[in-house]
Amino acid sequence: MSIAATTMPVDDAPTAEQVRDSMADAMRDAANSAAQHATAMKDAIADSGPVRMLSRLTYSTAYALSFGIVYTAVFVTQLLPRDNPVMHGFRDGADAAMDSVNGA
After folding, report:
1. Residue 73: closest CA among 60, 86, 62, 57
2. How many CB atoms within 10 Å of residue 87?
């Protein structure tokens, strides 16, 4: 592997002021680019705000409702004695529901 070396004559070397100006331009361009990107991201997030809020509200409501129903059902079934007509009815109803879902 060979690397070509280039040399710059001393007369063509950039001055300290040119280097400083070049660095300042690069920093300014980077700052402008970052600001434009931040503005674009802020606009994209703002545009999705109402949809995201509605989606999150729907999810949270469904989660709370299903958790409340399932937790209550499990709690009630744990309170009842195992060998009684109510528990046999729950068990038979659950079996019938599973058979209906499975197509049996």
Report:
1. 86
2. 13
